[in-house]
Every structure is written in C-alpha cells, then in structure tokens.
Design a protein that fits this description.
The chain is 78% helix and 0% strand. The protein contains 1 helix and no strands. The longest helix is centred in the middle third of the chain and has 28 residues.
Length: 36
C-alpha cells in the first residue's frame, strides 16, 4: 500500500479529498432528488 508510505500530512490531504468527493456525491444525489 503506497498510502502508508506517504507522510501523515499528505495522507490527511488524500483522505480529505476522498471525503470531499463522497460528500459531493451525496449532495448531488440529494440535489437531483429535490429537482426531479
């Protein structure tokens, strides 16, 4: 696993990006439900 070799700050950034993507996906789903 490459992620574990990365320094903590960099790993934190990757995790934050992942969370952002997941939250964005959920927001889009809700948004589509509201519009549709």
């Amino acid at each position: 696993m490459v992620l574990f070799c990365v320094c903590p700050r960099e790993r934190g950034r990757v995790m934050a990006k992942k969370m952002e993507t997941i939250l964005l996906g959920q927001a889009v789903k809700i948004w589509n439900k509201e519009k549709g």
